[in-house]
Amino acid sequence: MNDAGRILEEMNDRSREVFRRVVESYLATGDPVGSRTLTRDMSEKVSAATIRNVMQDLEYLGLLDSPHVSAGRVPTQEGLRMFVDGLLEIGDLQNDDRRTIDATLGSNSQDVAAALDRVGSALSGVTHGASLVLAPKHEAPIKHIEFVGLGHDRALVVLVFADGHVENRIFNPPPGQTPSSMREAANFLNALIEGKTLSDLQTVIAKQINERRREIDQLAHAMVESGLAVWDGESESYERLIVRGRANLLGSETEEAELERIRILFDDLERKRDIAEFLELTDEGEGVRIFIGSENKLFSLSGSSLVVSPYMNADRKIIGAVGVIGPTRLNYGRIVPIVNYTAQLVGKLIADRS
Fold first, then answer.
1. Are residues 128 and 269 in the same domain?
2. Which residues form the signal peptide (predicted)?
3. What is the pLDDT of residues 34-71, one digit of tens each?
């Protein structure tokens, strides 16, 4: 049993009820909860003084906090974590939410990227938070590779897949590249790629480079390795990150400091900083996981929570994730089934159209 479970077990019924009602009221309103408010809702008749004593004990345990003198209590991050782990009641997926999400996948289009974009917008709409969809890499066989110089320190690798998909990735080539070395590098790769995916190529090409090092011009050899690094880097584990609903995190009464924290969060997201960790965070199980505040370093500065679930392909391999970002006082009981259902639907979409 973890610490949260042990503390809950050791609480008496009154303390557990006071704690649960404070958290539920805070999640619903965002306001601190006072003892007089709780006296009207408790299942047994107790005085405000008795409730104040219980709240002081819960504050001593680090589960509640007083934002202002005599202004009631709010749950701490530790308190929210304990509530989510031990007392949260997950509701059923509402029919309206189900229909909205289903409608995004109703098209017969084979464009998975467009479908994932619609899923992100729908998820943001029904949860009133910001949504994220981590899309999988494109794993069709490659038909053609080409390198294009964009300047002395930038180059473009163009990947044409057998299914017609085209992907462009910018990278920093080694200095001294010439149009001739770029063509030689592309010719070397194109001679090996037939019928192979990017994953297949990484192992084959590494072996070929070692065996045929003398056959390739030194510049072309460096170009191949630099181009490969684009495919193999951690930040390119997934094709792209789709984020929708940024405005949902910016309430009309948002203070300047809160605006700055949210701006930092989205700057980090757009730079894909730590995004590769999402699947590492979710691959311990198939279900929804909840990260509150600083439990995920990506969200520690913004004070946000992340509700995220992985999705799988037909081989039951985790290939991406969908999630909702919002304030720590999210309606977790409603959002968890929405994220779970969306992840299952996206997994089915990928399996059906791959």
1. yes
2. none
3. 888 888 878 888 888 899 899 999 999 999 998 776 66
- Does one domain contain both 327 and 341? yes
Q: What are phi and psi of 101, to 5 degrees?
A: -70, -40
**pTM of whole model > 0.85?**
no
Q: In which domain, by residue range, is 287 found?
A: 95-136+239-353
DSSP calls for 307-344: EEEEEE-TTS-EEEEEEEEEETT--HHHHHHHHHHHHH
**Max CA distance (Å), the chain:** 87
The runs of H, that is alpha helices, within 30-64 are 35-39, 48-60
Distances (CA, A) of 130 to 34, 114, 253, 272, 307: 31, 18, 18, 16, 11
Identify whether residues 258 and 337 lie together within a single domain: yes
- Find out whether 198 and 240 touch, Cβ atoms under 8 Å: no
* Number of separate domains in the chain: 3
What secondary structure letter does DSSP report for 33?
B
Are residues 256 and 342 both part of a single domain? Answer: yes
- What are 21-33's pLDDT values in tens digits? 999 999 888 888 8
Strands (E), the chain: 64-65, 74-75, 130-135, 142-149, 155-161, 166-171, 240-244, 289-292, 304-312, 318-327
